[in-house]
Specification:
366 residues, 11 helices, single chain, mainly alpha
């Protein structure tokens, strides 16, 4: 009788899981919208956690160097202010050096529109192509433009709303990050209490190990990337000054900043830099591209291994996959954290596989 009751429970559980699975398959769009809304709600806090981790690196460094300060709260506030000041200084430096140049380029292109139009017209006329004659109905064209005004207004409102939302999320993330950093020891104690209360000792040890590996990987990744970006940007500025390529400092800083994104970052910097150069000195563009390509080879094969040491441990194939998937999910932020997340998974999986293989080989020998 007891066996029949057990079998009945198993069948009921199987039926429930089957029905739930079928409902999920038939309502994937609804579930996707729910998950998307939930992610949008918690995104500022996820971003705040990421910012807290990044700010903790310079803050912890400053705290270690100023151990003589006995007032821990004062030391924490000074260290946090120092970390925020460092990040803001870097952001303002990049904006000050790059944004005005891009604005100048846009203005130059707008001012030269009549000239470009004339050149294109002369080129088409020189080809001696018989273009068909069109009779344009001005009133119909006016009606079409008037009909598009609601769509233009809707798009404009959407852009403004998204911009305001992004700014609000960033402000919430910064405030959340500050709260985390001020009370990080207290939060750590509370988290440990929760784990002790609800998670067994063995599982808790595994989670702590995962956290330690992830922290080590992320710290190493960001340190390596920042050092590599600084070296690459500095060498780019020096070489461009020697070769008398315009916008040396602006483009060097841009390449250094974009180099923080693995694989694709440096190419983004090169493309934007080439656009800046071609507006004032088209001949120098080839020199710039050749120099940056040579510099990347030298930096990647000689300077990087000696100064930085071994990288995060992923092959180029997995780095490209991590950047692509991370970018498709979380944009630039996804590109930045995609590689360390993939490295963490790879490190944990490699240790587990090696441990299991070692155990199996011992059992086989016995």
């Amino acid at each position: 009788m007891e066996n029949k009751s057990t079998d009945l429970k198993k069948y009921l559980i199987l039926i429930v899981f089957t029905l739930v699975g079928l409902w999920i398959i038939n309502n994937l769009a609804i579930i996707g919208n729910i998950l998307k809304s939930f992610f949008n709600i918690i995104f500022p806090f996820i971003l705040g956690g990421c910012l807290a981790y990044l700010l903790n690196l310079p803050m912890s460094f400053f705290e270690r160097k100023c151990k003589k300060v006995k007032n821990k709260k004062l030391l924490r506030l000074i260290s946090l202010s120092f970390a925020i000041l460092v990040i803001l200084t870097i952001i303002m430096l990049v904006i000050t050096l790059i944004v005005p140049r891009l604005i100048d380029i846009v203005k130059l292109l707008i001012d030269n529109i009549p000239y470009y139009s004339e050149q294109i017209g002369n080129f088409i006329s020189g080809l001696e192509i018989d273009l068909p004659q069109y009779n344009i109905d001005i009133y119909a064209l006016k009606d079409q433009i008037m009909n598009q005004i609601p769509n233009i207004l809707t798009t404009s409102i959407s852009v403004i709303t998204n911009t305001v939302s992004a700014i609000s999320n960033f402000i919430i993330a910064i405030i959340f990050a500050i709260y985390i950093l001020i009370d990080k020891e207290k939060l750590q104690r509370q988290f440990n209490k929760i784990m002790k209360a609800y998670i067994g000792k063995r599982k808790r040890a595994k989670l702590i190990n995962i956290g330690r590996v992830a922290s080590k990987v992320f710290r190493k990744f960001f340190t390596v990337q920042c050092l590599e970006a600084t070296i690459l940007g500095s060498l780019c500025i020096i070489g461009m000054l020697i070769l008398k390529i315009p916008y040396a400092i602006s483009i060097g800083v841009l390449i250094g900043v974009t180099a923080l994104i693995p694989i694709v970052g440096a190419f983004i910097g090169v493309i934007i830099g080439a656009i800046l150069i071609v507006s004032v000195a088209p001949i120098k563009v080839i020199t710039f591209i050749v120099y940056v390509l040579i510099l990347q080879q030298i930096e990647g094969n000689l300077i990087y291994p000696r100064v930085v040491g071994s990288s995060v441990g992923l092959s180029g194939m997995w780095v490209l996959a991590a950047v692509t998937v991370g970018g498709s999910i979380g944009g630039i932020l996804g590109m930045l954290i995609g590689v360390p997340i993939a490295t963490t998974v790879y490190t944990l999986l490699r240790k587990d596989v090696n441990k299991k293989l070692e155990t199996k080989s011992k059992n086989y020998i016995i």
